[in-house]
Design brief:
about 550 residues, Immunoglobulin-like, eight-stranded parallel beta sheet, five-stranded antiparallel beta sheet, globular, binds 1-deoxynojirimycin
Length: about 550
């Protein structure tokens, strides 16, 4: 397998609004990020992914861009951004930017023009349609943020398509002018020296011709149109064109966000021969607890469900077929330790165990800000304390339109709401966790006196210092980067265990996913002379025979087998 920096590196995602506020306005900013670069370098981070910092009215916190080539005023200036890039490069770190081109903002100048008249030169930059003969929306698709995907516009008495919020009109990728504008903009950023892109919902840019109604067996007001806009008919044509015109000219990293993609489909995006992207963010694990009613309809799952998904992707993109991206949370998902671990009694142990998983599977690990100190989900008393548009739209629909019990809806927000991940970064135990001297745009999680970076950096037993060792261990052992994955004990509801093999080298990983002591027995087929402990989240007796031993709650061990 070909060695690549983006396979060997560790990525850290920054959600700028919540990271570090330098000027006391309660909103994180670029100068704030710059003050934290040594913290990140010390952790061992190679690559920063910056969520959008572009000019935006912030209906969806920057994922609604009104100017792709300007920095949001609240975040600073272009010269602050230039300094950020320089300071990262000076430290030997790389920067990847968020590319949001499925849609932009209704305040983008293209849309301001587009909506003016039917014959405006920008009309065809977006997807406009007339009402159906019966006067209803052009089709029945449901927006990912609730309600219809169509918004009526008085000016021309037509509707425009928005898969997300109504202030996020979808761009019309059928129009070659739109594609050229996007490629030119990407080239402009790459020529400024960035090291790649994370591409927002990139598998939604090609819609099925005719935009047909989605099946609606339950007779709901709107229906999921995913099959008509995810992995659409021209997606690979567009990505190859983008690759040929832009991406192939630079030594960069690309990761596409692609909900609803299977490993088979993923190969078509990331296999080297395809000349499209390098990695994808797939959602199978993120959807593990979503019921028939979607993400807010939370259902239980088992460890074997969890492992089946993870292992399927390991095999699916392994052995040279592609390359995995590995993540357990991000700015759209609940906190990893609250969701897959235990955020009370065994917070330290389970966060370290999950971190061990992240850094020992095959793929590039992505750490989301605050994960490295074990930040947890949050519970605010009332909906008013939440800021996220997806959360509010859902709450309004379920409580005010459908009459559901508000307490029940709040429960689902506590488990799945995006603001769980967006509470300000907890830097220390001073007021507002040291995030701001002003009033934070979203309240700080009240557990900051115990959970904060200052404590974590100075405590040798912290999650932060364990992550530091994990990153170093992966760096020192190429078998952890490139080695082939083989699962052990796949039926176990207690352990996730696997080996990684690269030529003569082999590593064994044992993870206890439960909150109790569990007897571990190594399958007979795993033979070895000596087992050398590389890392563990507990004290381990080096002389212990690992064929049979008792693991402690959420214990994680990684051995090199000789
Ligand atoms: C995915 C992003 O990660 C999310 O935050 C955003 O709301 C949607 N795409 C729309 O851009």
């Amino acid at each position: 397998m070909e060695r690549k920096w983006w396979k060997e590196g560790t990525v850290y995602q920054i959600y700028p609004r919540s990271y570090a506020d330098s000027n006391g306005d309660g909103i994180g900013d670029i100068p704030g990020i710059i003050t934290k670069l040594d913290y990140l370098k010390n952790l061992g981070i190679d690559i920063i992914w910056l969520s959008p910092v572009y000019q935006s009215p912030n209906d969806d916190n920057g994922y609604d861009i009104s100017d792709y080539q300007a920095i949001m005023d609240e975040f600073g200036t272009m010269s602050d951004w230039d300094q950020l890039l320089q300071e990262l490069h000076d430290r030997g770190m790389k920067l990847i930017m968020d590319l949001v081109v499925n849609h932009n903002s209704d305040e983008h100048r293209w849309f301001v023009e587009s909506r003016k008249s039917l014959d405006n030169p920008y009309r065809d930059y977006y997807i406009w349609r007339a009402a159906k003969a019966d006067g209803t929306e052009p089709n029945n698709w449901e927006s990912i943020f609730s309600g219809s995907t169509w918004q009526h516009d008085e000016q021309t008495d037509q509707y425009y398509l928005h898969l997300f919020a109504k202030k996020q009109p979808d761009l019309n990728w059928e129009n070659p002018k739109v594609r050229q504008e996007v490629y030119d903009m990407m080239t402009w950023w790459l020529d400024k020296g960035i090291d790649g892109f994370r591409m927002d919902v990139i598998n939604m840019i090609s819609k099925v011709e005719g935009l047909p109604d989605a099946p609606n067996p339950e007779g709901r007001k709107y229906a999921s149109g995913g099959d008509y806009f995810m992995n659409g008919p021209k997606i690979h044509e567009y990505l190859r064109e983008m690759n040929e015109q832009v991406l192939s000219k630079y030594d960069i990293m690309t990761v596409g966000e692609t909900p609803g993609v299977t490993p088979e489909q993923a190969i078509d995006y990331v296999n080297d021969d395809r000349h499209e992207l390098q990695m994808l963010f797939q959602f199978e694990l993120m959807d593990i607890d979503s019921g028939p009613g979607g993400k807010w309809n939370v259902v239980p799952y088992t460890l074997t469900d969890f492992k089946r998904i993870m292992s399927k992707w390991q095999y699916g993109l392994g052995r040279g077929k592609g390359w995995n991206s590995l993540y357990l949370n991000n700015h759209d998902q609940p906190r990893m330790v609250s969701r897959f671990g235990d955020d009370s009694t065994y917070r330290l142990e389970s966060a370290k165990m999950l971190g061990t998983l992240l850094h020992t599977l095959q793929g590039t690990p992505y750490i989301y800000q605050g994960e490295e100190i074990g930040m947890t989900n949050v519970k605010f008393d009332t909906i008013e304390h939440y800021q996220d548009i997806e959360t509010h739209n859902m709450y309004n629909e379920k409580v005010h339109q459908e009459g559901q019990d508000p307490a029940k809806v709040m429960e689902s927000i506590y488990i799945k709401g995006r603001d769980n991940a967006r509470t300000p970064m907890q830097w220390d135990d001073s007021e507002h966790a040291g995030f701001t001297t002003g009033t934070p745009w979203l309240q700080v999680n009240p557990n900051y006196p115990q959970i904060n970076a200052k404590q974590a950096v100075s405590d040798p037993n912290s999650i932060y210092n364990y992550y530091k060792r994990l990153i170093q261990t992966r760096r020192d052992n190429l078998v952890l980067v490139y080695g082939e994955f083989d699962e052990l004990l796949s039926d176990s509801e207690t352990f996730y265990a696997y080996t990684r093999t690269l030529n003569e080298e082999r590593v064994l990983v044992i993870l206890n996913f439960t909150c109790s002591d569990q007897a571990f027995e190594l399958p007979k087929e795993v033979t070895y002379q000596t087992a050398e402990l590389l890392i563990s989240n507990y004290e381990v007796d080096p002389a212990q025979d690992i064929r049979n031993f008792t693991t402690r709650p959420y214990e994680a061990r990684v051995y090199r087998l000789n």
